[in-house]
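[INFO] parsing input record for Protein FAR1-RELATED SEQUENCE
[DEBUG] input buffer:
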Amino acid sequence: MESSSSEDEGSTRDNNVDLNDDNMEQHMGLEVSSHLAEEGGLFVPHQQNAENPEPFVGMEFESEESAKSFYMAYASRVGFSVRISKSRRSRNDESIIMRRFVCSKEGFHMKKGNFDDGKKKRKRATIREGCNAMIEVIQKYYGRWVVSKLVKDHNHLVEAPSRVRYIAPEEYAGIEPFLGMEFHSHEAAQTFYYAYASRVGFDVRIRLSRRSTRDDSFVMRRFVCTKEGFTPFEESYDENKKKRSRTPTREGCKAMFEVIKKDYDKWVVSKLVTEHTHDLAVAPSKVHYIQSQSEVVVLAKSGTVNRDKSATPANLKPQLVEPVTGFSNPPPNDQDLRTDTKEVRQYAFGVEESQGLLEYFKRMQSENPTFSYAFQLDKNNCLLNIFWADAKAKMAYYCFGDVVTLDMSYRRNKNMIPFAMFTGVNHHLQSVIFGCALMTDETEASYVWLFENWLLAMCGGRPPVSLITDQQEAIGAAIAKMFPETRHCICKRHILNKCKEKLSNLYAVHATFEEEFEKCVDNSETVEIFEASWKSILDKYDMGENSWLQFLYSLRQKWVPVYLKDTFTAEISVVHRPESLNKFFEKYFNSKTNLLVFISLFEQAMAGWYEREALEDLATQYTRPLLKTPSNMLKQVAEIYTRTIFDIFQEEFVESLGYYVDKIEDAMVSKYRVTRDEDAHAPCTVSYDFSEKRTSCSCCKFETSGILCRHILRVFLTVDVRVLPEYYILKRWTRDAKSGFVLDESVRYNELCRDAMKYAREGSTSGEIYNVAKEALQMAFAEVMAAKKDIINRCPI
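[DEBUG] output buffer:
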């Protein structure tokens, strides 16, 4: 028998915990656990991400404790704290048979009765916001605990505490606090004091807050050392209850920092005590502000990283570049130099910033050999360009590297960090990343360096089929040199945006120009139609002598869609970067951002991409799409394509039913005219080879996107093709798109590349040594090929 209504005493206590400013950090330390269920307590299907699994209904655990540890680890990654909301006990033996864990912001605080005892009571900050996020586990008859209820969405912002970085505001970097100091917000004051505490070597907590009686906004905040006050003595009223002995952590420290809001919306330091009654941390760079599974790095923005300087090696050797013997010191006025292109190339990265980033990359590679990076220096050993890529980027390129975009859009904004991304789209049409770079130099040589290191990092991968970039002469020259077989495409969106800038007067005077121009670019079905439309627009608006339009016309084969109909681009031009990433860049990535903070924040943003891909993989694996018509072909591809690609295919299939087919040439390769009443003026021609079972359409949708068009699907119905031929199923769009990637192979490749670089460096020091190295290399290569041939002969076909 079960008791369905009673809650155990522990759950009752947890449900009534009122977390004010005094015990918030203690709560975070207790509830945001870093324990991942790694001892076999977690039962997940093989499709689930074993390293960081997501909760789902039906998930199984060995025990209630395993379920609790898992959910707290999940909360730690996502960025919220957990409490026990409800429990249920068995009526047979009083054992727990149900547990419900909720976000600490679940529910609302109950209003207490107003008993006027003459004492002033401070208003406590409300932390409950009615959040519905929860997970409920019940014990099954076979002993395991199963997730029976789950809500993942929160009604408030969440941020993984392991990713929090405290950066002192630029104008206060390195400054000691003083009475009368002003801040534009209480958050800025808090960030400053936390960074100051990091430098000095102590922990901080919020001791007291005061809110306005008018709008409930904060008007006072007091920050104190975590050793402020004394650990209270708890009198035991119930000897039967076991209470764990807590180690006293408070020592009566008086250090504090109080800010109040003034009438002119500035926050001013009103009270300050800087002396401490205890010893400060020996290594302030390791001060923890939030307990989590990884350290919270606290950085002060003064061009340096808070770390033990004595631990920094004098000479560091980055991968794939010459040894770094040191970086030149930046000039005093860094801000002024950023406005000059040549100076930016020399001093965009500070000395200690560069060394810190190099240390970080070396540590990443030592932990995971598949991580690749490269630094490029100028003749003065100043850092010019940086490139890096991790294992996820390499796997993504192996599976989806046929179409690549080099996104340099943030390089154009002088207030942004000079950032570049190699991106593409996966089998869910989601953005994936193939590597990143910080580029302060835009010469052809620098882009050649970037492409060399990028392709080398991609497991010696094949060059992409098409590479999409912004319009820039140096990039075009580097692509022609590095990827002669790759189709270089210029982003159409970039071109059209530049037109609004270059032809701003024309856009302002003639309201119809933009529509006609874009129609000419997008809707021209043939080269002849485009040429005629382009000439017509030039004549109508008298722009025949315009140098910008003449320049665009000379590049038409690289950006006008009708000229790219024979090139596979995965229709990537219609896939825009997520809006959330745009806002993320605008908020965090500017010329004042510390490089290590930059990398950390970007990794956090990418974690969201990986999570969305994993969720879509899971949904595709366990759900089946709804068929709009009982077609054998739709049933076939529903089992092969991902949900996203199937939806596109099904839309084309359903639309094909509204088209008419006329045979215009009857032979072994027959031709059909496919049209619809409303667009009879623009029919498509489909050719079908009966012997090879191959077809093609004048719209070239399959050639550009890898998904059959409605015109071919309509002809398939006419010639009685009921099953989609295997030739027309591209693996990159299927559920199994990511199969076949062997990480061990990439590790072996990278190891050999590193050894080869050392070999080449030593072997080229003189002519005599070069001859010895060349002969030895030829002998070694012959032995490798002989061994490879022997393995092939021994393996049965």
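[INFO] The radius of gyration is 32 Å.
[INFO] shutting down worker
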